[in-house]
Amino acid sequence: MTYVLRTASLTKKYKSRNVINHVNLNIQRGEIYAVLGKSGAGKTTLLRMLMGLVNPTGGEIEWFGQKSIRTNPRLYEKIGIMTGASGFVPHLTAAENLDIHRMLMGVPSRRYVDEALENVNLTAASNIRFAKLSFGMQQRLGLARALLHQPELLLLDEPFNGLDSQEMQQMYHLLGSLSQSRKTAMVISSRVVSVVQPIARRIGVLHEGTIVAELDDDTLALKTRQYIRLRVNDDMKASFLLEQYMAVYDYIVLQPGLILIYEHMECLPDIARLMVEHKVDILELCPVQRKMEDYMMELMRENGREPNP
After folding, report:
1. Which residues contact 76 (CB under 8 A, 6 or more apart)?
2. How large a percentage of the chain has pLDDT more than 70?
3. Which of 62, 80, 84, 132 is most buried per CB count within 10 Å?
4. Are 251 and 241 within 8 A, CB to CB?
5. Average pLDDT in the 170-192 region?
6. What average pLDDT score do residues 120-128 get?
7. DSSP states along 174-227
């Protein structure tokens, strides 16, 4: 299989410190991949290497099956990058700024500027000076620049920063549409899992330069699903009662006396009544909604990388 983007043991070292440590990525056409990590995890360094802006210390990167982007400059025609809203002239309008970048990028027609502004819902702001745009609008203008030449791969460094909920929903719709209709592949970095979970098909958890886990959306949904926490003095008897009297089968005995029930969330009173009637002592009975952020912290602890408080 030929990947749009692939890395093998990608490493970046500054002095004696590995900022990126043997990262392996395989990104297919149309896939939206999120790199999730806290500040200082190495997200921006990784994205800049993928953009060809920073040279790796070790390992390799392949863009569309090619190993050198600098000796194959036409590869840049297939890649759109967003590193915030830098590179725009404050006293020029949104449209004028994009038109300058269009010419620098060799995009032939002015219509691509209008189309890019429309895609990010900035048509009404096309004649507003960049300095007068809100931060969220500046972010969207940065995305419009990345879309000017209709790339096959988007590399977006924290594109959701500064967006309100409505702008974020518009961004989700746009990126999802590009993934579906144009099969545009994307690598998106973020510090917040709940921001990228609605759009990403896979999430790589980056901590101290290492991908400590890769999760698809089904795995995330499973790991963060709601459940009932039931602690009793006799888990074998309680399990029997749940199956025989309430047809509860989606549960696990996590440890002696502790049962996690993943169905019948509305039946807490019935569970309590059943246990009392059959003389099973209830030590704890409560619903739990596991937060995605808590699961990410647990992943880091399991890998021996407890994040700094």
Report:
1. 52, 69
2. 93
3. 80
4. no
5. 91
6. 93
7. HHHHHHHHS--EEEEEES-HHHHTTT-SEEEEEETTEEEEEEEHHHHHHHT-EE
Torsion sign over Cα 64, 65, 67, 72: negative
Q: How far apart are CA 203 and CA 4, in angstroms?
A: 17
Residue among 113, 66, 106, 112 nearest 92 (CA)? 113
- What is the spatial distance between Cα 5 and Cα 259, in angstroms, rounded to a whole number? 43
Token pair belonging to 155? 């590399």
Pick left, alpha or beta for residue 128 (phi over 0 → left; psi -120 to 50 → alpha; otherwise beta). Answer: beta
Say if residues 21 and 207 touch (Cβ distance below 8 Å).
no
85 Ramachandran zone, left/alpha/beta (phi>0; psi -120 to 50): alpha
CATH number of this structure's domain 226-289: 3.30.70.100
SS3 285: strand
Residue with tokens 């800049």: 48
pLDDT, tens digit, 9 for 90 and up, residues 203-221 = 998 988 999 888 887 777 7
Q: Are 51 and 29 in contact (CB under 8 A)?
A: no
- Which residues have CB under 8 Å from 55's CB, separation 6+? 49
- What average pLDDT does the structure give for the chain? 88
User: To which residue do tokens 């006293």 refer?
Assistant: 91
The identity of residue 198, as a single letter, is P
Its pTM stands at 0.77
* Contact present, 104 and 97 (Cβ < 8 Å): no
Domain ranges (residues) in the chain? 5-221, 226-289
Sign of CA dihedral 84, 86, 90, 94: negative
Q: Using CA atoms, how far apart are residues 213 and 296, in angstroms rounded to an integer?
A: 9
**pLDDT score recorded for residue 306:** 47
Residue 56: helix, strand or coil by DSSP? coil
